[in-house]
Amino acid sequence: LVYLNNYILNELFPYSATLSTCQMAFCSFASAFCVFVLRLRPRTPGMTPRVYLTRVTPLGILFAFYLYGTATPYETLSVSFIQLVKPITGPLTFVLLVALGMEQYSPLKLGVLFVIFGAVSIEGLGEAELGAFNTTGFSWLIVGCASSAAYLVLSQRLMQGGDVNIKLNPI
Hints:
This protein is mainly α. The chain contains seven helices and no strands. Helix 2 (16-37) packs antiparallel against helix 3 (49-71) and helix 5 crosses helix 7.
């Protein structure tokens, strides 16, 4: 499998992020086909095609944006810069959880958020001073982090049920 992937990426299609996005889209459609058309698994109680389109498909789309958004910056930004910016996903997740009423706000948590955002801002300024900062790569990285945060929040919302009571199966 490793050799096959190496061949595909080096000889046929060198865009790994796009390839990962296509793979995620295919897996999402294949899963839906197996459950709704072939009926290989019994239907999950409460999982209607409407719920699948409104609750599960957005998770696949967000995960694809996460993969693309966090893989593309490696072409234009330094690895150390990317690894220092990625922790911004935590505060973004917390902000979304508070906005959706799934988490309680506290001043201590707000203070931690400011420390993380401040550290990322200082690191970004340092990268710009070195002349290695790339706006396009940074924008894709932020899209990837925001997509990851939204994916985590919507996954938690799906697992908790909320207005839809669903018992999920492996497919």
